[in-house]
Design brief:
The structure holds 2 protein chains of 2 kinds. Chain A is α/β, with parallel strands linked by helices. Chain A has 13 helices and 13 strands. Classes of the chains: A alpha/beta, B alpha/beta. Chain B: Heterotetramer of alpha and beta chains.
């Protein structure tokens, strides 16, 4: 299926107060193909599998879908680069983890799921939020801790959520979201919804004990959960081979089947997620190891070049970049011209800049927000100002 | 200018920090290292806090061949540069990276210490210590007791940066010390400055009990003072009276000392004489020093960054009320973090800032 994610994004939040910015990108530039005729493309590399038969390498797509992939990934790329500058300008405080390089995972997964399926991830969550139909203004407002943010400015970079799209967010502690994902899947199964949960974690989190606890429960109760290991090869500043005896994360489930997927190839991701969804509904958990790469450091305090060479990063950019791969496909199949894609990127740049400007206008949360949402009635909290005889209040 | 003022504070051997000043800890490792190298006359070099910790770790590894340093990313210096150069000097068998698995790190450290080694484990942020909570509380703290002294893990020291940093948000700012103060068998130590950090860390590493050592991450680069170059230890479970005073006793630890220090100075302008005490070790804590002070002043204020309810300030208030009931002239005042999760925005609202402390000092003195 996979309609253009951006189109859905516009429709997704009609009722939401956060949809401040209408996205001006609904009409593609004139010559870009909008065809829905099926197109078969082979994935870059074959899948590797563990106790399961891998899906075929031939992926069916359409020109329209490829264009939407290109556009969505470019929006994400641009947004992350903009976030980098905002952080350096100290407009974003706190911790900030960027996703650029890994866009194909979020976009490919979105193409294979519906919004009734759940997604839960760790703190590198900006683009997963965007893929689920998140609004750019709400994203930037959240990054800057503003009132119109997707978590009302109370979460920040690591804590994006989108309930109407079943995006369970943004979790700060490495690996802690994985058992949560199994709980989501249990509820889905119990309600006989025929939906699944995509439960994301990184190669660093793959060594956390609770992952294996969750895996056992998921397998034991045949939960419709897909454990997606986004393997970007570095757990913070430590290369995977320094931290993992077996970096074949798709085999780590032992009794749980797994697939290794080229996470830089959006079509391969789409195919694998579609396969995994069907598999999980029928048989219980499966692991998808997405072989991907982050161009930025782990967080903004990590230059990302002390534990790996600049050549390595440049090499990946040149050989495996997910956006460039789709660009090449569009050009070789004559679905768009170089100039048209460039124009599209220019437009996206403008769109992101507009969103940032809008987000900057959003005010800080009201100071009383400090005390809300701690408990359901926010009882028992008290606060006092400098002269507490005057300002001391016990909030309701 | 701020840095200069801080260095001067350092020379006077006080806790040095600019609370309220927003300063990132992540941007300029090189610049900070430059500061650390600056030489002054007298007994030692001017060092910032992370360099003092680094020196202590060098000494610990140098003086005991059975000591080990490990944790997430420590091999290349750690996110706060506390372990810089250790792997090169002492080799990858003694200084090494672990996977990202805090429970595993703590459990592994308990086992290593149980074989008579000094296991110095790092949990990258105190906010990440909770997966290791079980190992620390149930395994480390009770090993000696439940084996009737047959076994112990006394060589265990867990280092972890704690506290606010200006913009850390929910999971890089918490102060979880009170959780560990509820566990007999553990020691909890928090230094306030570079000199203190070096001496207390060496004492903690060499103490025959498992120690949780929280380092105030706000001060890693901000606090600079003269630190003796030699190997020295400061006694655990011994509070220090930093300033003598007669009107009210202020008790705190770690980064909060700098806030209390500023409040003391401002209170002095209003003619209030504060006695300032750094508790240094939270459990087992030095009740006598605090009691003696409160017996003299008749008033007590405790201040910490952690939320007020169930914080360690409550324990101090209760104990001192018990011991000094007849001599107390006002209720014990607590100026602490608010009972909310650590906020992303409005961190300054949450924090027990100087003005809040000053206000409480006045309210208590004029009770």
């Amino acid at each position: 299926m996979a309609a253009a994610v951006l189109l859905r994004r516009v429709q997704a939040g009609t009722a939401s107060r956060r949809v401040a910015a209408a996205l001006p990108l609904t009409t593609p530039a004139r010559g870009v193909s909008d065809s829905t005729e099926p197109l078969t493309i082979e994935t870059s590399v074959p899948y590797k599998s563990h106790i399961v038969d891998a899906p075929a390498r031939e992926v069916t797509t359409t020109a329209r879908e490829l264009v939407s992939f290109f556009r969505d990934m470019s929006v994400m790329r641009r947004a992350e680069i903009a976030a980098d500058s905002l952080y350096k300008a100290k407009l974003i405080r706190g911790f900030c983890h960027l996703y650029d390089g890994q866009e194909a995972v979020a976009v490919g997964m979105e193409a294979a799921t519906t919004r009734a399926d759940s997604i839960i991830t760790a703190y590198r969550d900006h683009c997963t939020y965007l893929a689920r139909g998140g609004d750019l203004v709400a994203a930037f407002a959240e990054l800057m801790g503003r009132r119109d943010g997707c978590s009302r400015g109370k979460g920040g970079s690591m804590h994006f959520y989108k309930k109407d799209a079943n995006f369970y967010g943004g979790h700060g502690i490495v690996g802690a979201q994985v058992p949560l994902g199994c709980g989501l899947a249990f509820a889905q199964k119990y309600r006989k919804e025929s939906t699944v949960t995509f439960d994301l974690y990184g190669d660093g989190a793959a060594n956390q004990g609770q992952l294996f606890e969750a895996l056992n429960m998921a397998a034991l109760w045949k939960l419709p959960v897909i454990l997606v290991c986004e393997n970007n090869h570095y757990g913070m500043g430590t290369a995977e081979w320094r931290a993992s005896k077996s970096p074949a994360y798709y085999k780590r489930g032992d009794y749980v089947p797994g697939l290794k997927v080229d996470g830089m190839d959006v079509l391969a991701v789409k195919q694998a997620c579609k396969f995994a969804k069907e598999y999980a509904l029928e048989n219980g958990p499966i692991i998808l190891e997405m072989d991907t790469y982050r161009y930025h450091g782990h967080s903004m305090s990590d230059p990302g070049s002390t534990y790996r060479t600049r050549n390595e990063i440049a090499g990946i950019r040149q050989e495996r970049d997910p956006i460039e791969r789709v660009r090449k496909l569009l050009l070789t199949h004559d679905l768009a011209t170089t100039q048209e894609l460039k124009d599209m990127e220019k437009e996206i740049r403008k769109q992101v800049d507009t969103a940032i400007a809008k987000a900057k206008e959003s005010p800080m949360p009201d100071p009383s927000e400090l005390f809300t949402n701690v408990y359901v009635n926010d009882c028992g909290l008290e606060s006092f100002g400098v002269d507490r005889k005057v300002v001391r209040t016990v909030l309701p | 200018m701020a840095a200069k003022a801080l260095r001067e504070m350092g020379r006077r051997r006080t806790a040095a920090a600019g609370i309220g000043r927003r300063r990132g800890f992540s941007e300029d490792a090189a610049a900070a290292a430059g500061v650390a190298e600056r030489k002054v006359g007298g007994e030692g070099k001017e060092l910032n806090l992370f360099t003092a910790i680094n020196q202590a770790l060098h000494i610990a590894l140098d003086t005991d061949p059975r000591s080990y340093v490990f944790g997430e990313d420590v091999g290349f210096g750690g996110v706060f540069r506390c372990t810089t150069g250790l792997a090169d000097r002492f080799g990858r068998n003694r200084v090494f990276n672990t996977p990202l698995c805090e429970q595993g790190i703590a459990g592994f450290a308990v086992g290593l210490a149980a074989m008579g080694n000094r296991a110095i484990a790092e949990i990258q942020f105190a906010d990440y210590i909770f997966p290791a909570f079980d190992q620390i509380v149930n395994e480390a703290a009770k090993f000696r007791y439940r084996s009737g002294n047959e076994f112990n893990c006394g060589g265990l020291t867990i280092r972890s940066p704690y506290g606010a940093v200006g913009h850390g948000g929910h999971y890089h700012s918490q102060s979880p010390e009170a959780f560990f103060c509820h566990v007999p068998g553990l020691k909890v130590v928090i230094p306030r400055s570079p000199r203190e950090a070096k001496g207390l860390l060496l004492a903690s590493i060499r103490d025959p009990n498992p120690v949780v050592f929280f380092e105030p991450k706000w001060l890693y680069r901000l606090a600079v003072e003269e630190v003796p170059e030699e190997d020295y230890m400061l006694p655990l479970s011994q509070a220090e009276v930093i300033h003598k005073g007669s009107d009210i006793t202020l008790v705190g630890w770690g980064a909060q000392l700098a806030v209390l220090e500023q409040a003391c100075e401002d209170a002095a302008k209003d003619g209030i004489s504060c006695e300032l005490i750094d508790l240094r070790t939270l459990i087992p804590w030095d009740k006598e020093t605090v009691e003696a002070s409160v017996s003299k002043t008749g008033k007590l204020l405790v201040s910490h960054e952690a939320p007020i309810t169930g914080g360690f300030g409550a324990e101090i208030a209760a104990s001192i009320t018990e011991r000094c009931f007849q001599r107390l002239e006002a209720p014990v005042s607590r100026v602490c973090g608010l009972d909310t999760p650590f906020p992303l925005v409005y961190e300054t609202f949450y924090m027990p800032t100087k003005n809040k402390v000053l206000d409480a000092i006045k309210a208590t003195v004029n009770y």
